[in-house]
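Standup notes
- DV: blocked on the single-chain target, sequence here:
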Amino acid sequence: MTPTERRHALDAIGWSARELGRRLDWSENMTRRWLEGRHQTALRVDEWLRRLAGFHEKHPKPSLAR
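- DV (later): unblocked, structure below
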């Protein structure tokens, strides 16, 4: 994933960079470097984020509209 795709995925999920880091048990510095494309990680993280974003896009949160 590119840095732009990663940011889009976080937006789709509704997470901040800090929340992503917390869920992965990463330091703030590592999370920031990864989001900017300056730190390589296993492709599993990209795939996991892509799948989460896809789920949230297909299944948006319920609205309170009556």
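- Follow-up: The CA atoms of residues 21 and 27 lie 6 Å apart.
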